[in-house]
Design brief:
Layout: H1 2-36, H2 52-64, H3 67-71, E1 78-83, E2 87-91, H4 107-116, H5 138-150, E3 162-163, H6 165-172, H7 200-206, H8 211-214, H9 245-254, H10 270-273, H11 278-288
Antiparallel strand pairs: 1-2, 2-3
Length: about 290
């Protein structure tokens, strides 16, 4: 009887192991195919400025869109994720230094990356949240590119991205936003630019940067970062419905909430939002209140 039980137990374990291996193989093939896909998109070109005012505006955009969290404050690249079973991913060197942008990197290549989430060779970038940037106005995107092109060269060769078994599975089931190009409407065309000002309309434009974590409906949910805390609802059904405009601005400037909590920057990047202008924070608050 015991031998029969052990035989059945061994058979069940073997079936389970086989099932896990088959599932992982399917995930591996799915992720590999997604990473190797070649995108043929039409890049709409426009003139990239080079004047000092545009570069300064681009520096502000870089500081307030979270670019430095992955690429470093000096644009030289940095480690973004290094978790054994999940994988290792670096924000690349964006400068013209060793390990950075090659000499033949063109304005089209910048637009291909930022508007479409695609590399120079047509394959998709990994993790880079281009879906938060592709609807930026030509003026803002041009200023950002102008700033990136003006950066002081830094020598830093970052390692190629690598996914561990868990990272492969999480990517395959959509729990890690690995391929930004899959979330972008590559045929999108900009309409009339929204005028900058403390308005809900301008706040809606700025809220694109919030959608990566707080979801497109800004209702929050599971963190896009493995192991991250649950992302809060930033519509009026969440704290925005309780906070005044002054309180909202104070939270995004200091990381301290009206109810006495201190936000961790890793969970809510208030050190980034603290760099927003009063006009930008006011506009964002007024838009969120309309939802």
């Amino acid at each position: 009887m015991l031998r029969k039980i052990l035989k059945w137990t061994g058979g069940i374990i073997a079936v389970l192991i086989t099932g896990v291996l088959i599932f992982y193989f399917i995930m591996h093939i799915m992720v590999k195919n997604s990473r190797d896909k070649i995108y043929n998109v039409e890049v709409r070109m426009f003139d990239i400025p080079s004047d000092s005012a545009s570069i300064a505006a681009g520096a502000h955009i870089y500081a307030t869109r979270g670019c430095g969290d992955c690429h470093g404050t000096d644009l030289g690249g940095k480690k973004f994720l290094d978790e054994g079973p999940i994988g290792r991913i670096y924000g690349t060197n964006l400068t013209r230094g060793k390990g950075g942008r090659p000499a033949d990197y063109t304005d089209r290549d910048w637009l291909l990356a930022l508007r479409h989430g695609i590399r120079k060779d047509g394959k998709p970038l990994l993790v880079m949240p281009s879906y938060e940037y592709y609807k930026m106005t030509d003026a803002d995107l041009g200023s950002l590119i102008a700033y990136l092109k003006s950066a002081t060269p830094r020598d830093n060769e970052t390692a190629a991205p690598s996914l561990g078994p868990l990272g492969t599975v999480l990517s395959g089931i959509g729990q890690i936003p690995l391929i930004p190009a899959e979330k972008i409407d590559h045929a999108w065309q900009p309409g009339t630019p929204i005028a900058k000002g403390p308005t809900a309309e301008y706040g809606q434009y700025l809220s694109m940067s919030c959608t990566g974590c707080h979801k497109p409906n800004l209702k929050g949910g599971e963190s896009p970062i493995p192991g991250g805390v649950f992302v809060r609802d930033i519509t009026p059904s969440g704290n925005i419905g309780k906070w005044s405009e002054k309180e909202f601005i104070a939270v995004l400037r200091t990381g301290n909430t009206p109810d006495g909590r201190s936000l961790k920057n890793d969970d809510m990047p208030w050190q980034m939002t603290s760099k927003y202008s009063d006009e930008e924070l006011t506009a964002l608050y007024r838009y969120l209140k309309t939802l």
